[in-house]
Amino acid sequence: MSDLDRLERLRGVQVARSILEKAFSLQLTIVGPEGPLAHARGGVMSGSSEVCRTALFTREGFQRCDAFYRALAADGAAGERARPCHLGLASIAVPVEVGDGVVAHVVASGFVATALQGCAPADPATLATALRELDPSLVDPSQPVRKLPVVRGDREQVVRSILRTAAEEIAEHVDDERRRLRARAGTSPGAWGIVGTSPRMREVFELLRRVASSDAAVLITGESGTGKELVARALHDHGPRTGKPFVAQSCGAVPDDVLESTLFGHVRGAFSGAVRSGEGLFGAAHGGTLFLDEVAEMSPAMQVKLLRVLSDGSYLPVGDTRPRTSDVRVITATHRDLAAMVQRGEFRQDLYYRLHVIPIALPPLRDRTGDLPLLVEHFLRDADSEIMPTRVSASAWRCLERYQWPGNVRELRAEIDRWAVTAAGEPEIGPEHLSPALRDAGGYAGQSGGEAAAAAASGQGSLQAAVDGLERAILVRGLERTGGNRTRLARELQISRTTLNERIKKFGLE
């Protein structure tokens, strides 16, 4: 498990630790393969009580405590466990499960339990004797024993819920880190300069490989923001015309006279304001590639002029009587259904066949969500911001994956640019940093359980609101994980189905 120190800074862990300290006088401990995090760093745990602190700051007590936690970490069995520590005090350990294994435990320990299965209530006299053996300088070891935190039966479930929330946060973080490492090899634009490894994009790359060396006309179709110009440039850069000009022009919402002059050029005096001749894009792109986006928006008159230059390579600048010729590869694109427009008489059939020699259909982002981690990683690295976090929380990921992305990759890029402002200085990007539409898609329209808990931890909300928020978050995640199977979820949470139904009803999750 890499960079354990970062786990301490996770928001969910900080909130859970704050609630345990304020409500129960308990210490949350993250236990990795090398024991408690503080010990792995070469320090000493702070301890939940004076008894624990006394034991920890003696050589033998520290060794016994460390051995207890190491044994707990070495037990890779899944499932929550309650067990006594070396002093006989109770502990509850919740495993952090990622994939098929346990990578860490979240533990609350050093308390007296009144009804905890697996942990008999500690005997005060025995505790006092054990404490005096560790530190003979203690005048009255029974005094710190009397101050030990006590967790009664009904409160035990609350402690478990808080530990589960922290464990889930850590598991999501570790899983996300692993996913990022797996994806890192694919985050840099590959041979085509386009990020993506999904099956749909692999089909596009295979088609690009086949047609790049050709001069055949290519029609790229896809929704706005799918990267049509990026594909056109990739074809140019990997074809025989690489090193020659690549010129792009959108035909959408451009008046005929302006578009005609832009494409074919004009002579001096051809129209008001034409004080000098203009070459036009067909001339500027000579020897290279001309990319015409939104070609479906061309008027019928402009369609005729484009058909002529595609047919024989000749065109007539505005105001000129001498035809010019240009050797260009024309690549066109549209977000509309040109075949349907031909059927309706809105687009010339002969021009359609000229353009539609090699069709390339780009998938919308919602159909290639497997590429989201690669795209996000690429854009975050491209942003190169020192104040914007580079980690996206699992909760935020759920929002990204459930959102439909009507603006496709362009919208994703704009969303990530937004994070530079909304998440500046934060340790990670959470749902609260996303735009409202994404939060709605992930079910975070209102204040989340984590936000309620954070408010309570900072003194801005009640403890009950924090506990309720955590419980609601646990139920939401559990229902998602089990596909709504309440019997299974009740078994996982170690509560009755009746109790689960009551909690679901309380939080409006029916």
From TrEMBL:
Any GO MF annotation of the entry: ATP binding
Gene3D superfamilies in alphabetical order: 1.10.8.60, Homeodomain-like (1.10.10.60), P-loop containing nucleotide triphosphate hydrolases (3.40.50.300)
Key words of the record: ATP-binding, DNA-binding, Nucleotide-binding, Transcription, Transcription regulation
Sigma-54 factor interaction domain boundaries: 194-421
A biological process from GO: regulation of DNA-templated transcription
PROSITE patterns in UniProt: SIGMA54_INTERACT_1, SIGMA54_INTERACT_2, SIGMA54_INTERACT_3, SIGMA54_INTERACT_4
Pfam family name, one: HTH_8
CDD domains: AAA
Protein name: Response regulator of zinc sigma-54-dependent two-component system
